Amino acid sequence: MPVGKNLSAEEKARRWQLWHEGKSHHEIARTLDITPVSVFLFLRNHGGIEPRIRARSLRHLSLEERESISRALSSGVSYRTIATELGRSVSTISREVARNGGRIHYRAARADKQAWKHGHRPKCCRLVEFAKLQRLVRKN
Prior knowledge:
Elements (H helix, E strand, L loop, with lengths): L8 H12 L4 H8 L3 H10 L17 H12 L4 H8 L3 H10 L2 H4 L2 H12 L6 H4 L1 H9 L1
Helix pairs in contact: 1-2, 2-3, 4-8, 5-6
């Protein structure tokens, strides 16, 4: 069995599906051709609770908007004009550009990747953090 196998999105979804069906770590590992320990550690790190799928808020800039900003900047368009075209505040455009390299070094793909990375809250599941809560849940 591969130790460091990277699972595809379908395999990750299947892992949660098997867990919800009540399959054991060993059954899940056998089905996905991975080690039982990797299944156990993964589930322990998530407290056995499937995290919700991340979705971008409509309030945040999209990749398409960032690409528009990048093209406009390379054409020498002002922040005010860019903001008007996108229906955004001038300060939103200004902060976005300043945060991601300024007028000269701004790149849409890199800015979007950074925004997605920074938007992720590295928050652990409560059941993993608190042993007392784990015991309480197990009792019931």
